[in-house]
């Protein structure tokens, strides 16, 4: 008696292969989505940090003592409007202040992306209300 072997795949084997491909495909899609989300987050964090650093540079150029507290404004960077808010806190040293710059998208001010902090000193800065001619 001659036995003919079936050279094809059974329906069960095909279904198992499809399940494996489907799981693999969904894992690849999740990884790609997570990557794109992380790239967007990193881009926003980078731009927000640049905005904060720009504000701190402007603060140094203003040379006003003490720095103005609760100041805020907007800046356009990378075709996007950013909102920044400056807070100034006293330190244990009378000639030093802690300055925090909070940055968020201008269309969602509650979503703070980054806070950059620094310290400024009175040395070499003019008193508030004092002109450069004094």
From TrEMBL:
Subcellular location: Cell inner membrane
Presence of the UniProt keyword Cell inner membrane in the record: yes
Domain Type II secretion system protein GspI C-terminal, residue spans: 42-120
Keyword Protein biosynthesis appears in the UniProt entry: no
GO CC aspect terms: plasma membrane; type II protein secretion system complex
Membrane topology note: Single-pass membrane protein
Domain of life: Bacteria
Single Gene Ontology BP annotation: protein secretion by the type II secretion system
PTM section of the record: Cleaved by prepilin peptidase.
Main location as per UniProt: membrane
Keyword vocabulary terms for this entry: Cell inner membrane, Cell membrane, Membrane, Methylation, Transmembrane, Transmembrane helix
Biological function: Component of the type II secretion system required for the energy-dependent secretion of extracellular factors such as proteases and toxins from the periplasm.
Subunit structure, interactors included: Type II secretion is composed of four main components: the outer membrane complex, the inner membrane complex, the cytoplasmic secretion ATPase and the periplasm-spanning pseudopilus.
Family according to the record: Belongs to the GSP I family.
Designated name of the protein: Type II secretion system protein I
Organism name: Saliniradius amylolyticus
């Amino acid at each position: 008696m001659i036995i003919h072997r079936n050279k094809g795949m059974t329906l069960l084997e095909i279904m198992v292969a499809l399940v494996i491909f489907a799981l693999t495909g969904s894992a690849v899609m999740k990884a790609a989505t997570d990557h794109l989300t992380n790239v967007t987050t990193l881009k926003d964090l980078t731009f927000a940090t640049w905005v904060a650093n720009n504000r701190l540079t402007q603060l140094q150029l203003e040379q006003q003592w003490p720095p103005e507290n609760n100041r805020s404004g907007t800046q356009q960077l990378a075709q996007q409007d950013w909102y920044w808010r400056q807070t100034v806190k006293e330190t244990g040293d009378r000639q030093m202040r802690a300055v925090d710059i909070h940055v968020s998208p201008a269309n969602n001010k509650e979503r703070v992306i980054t806070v950059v902090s620094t310290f400024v000193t009175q040395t070499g800065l003019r008193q508030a209300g004092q002109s450069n001619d004094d």
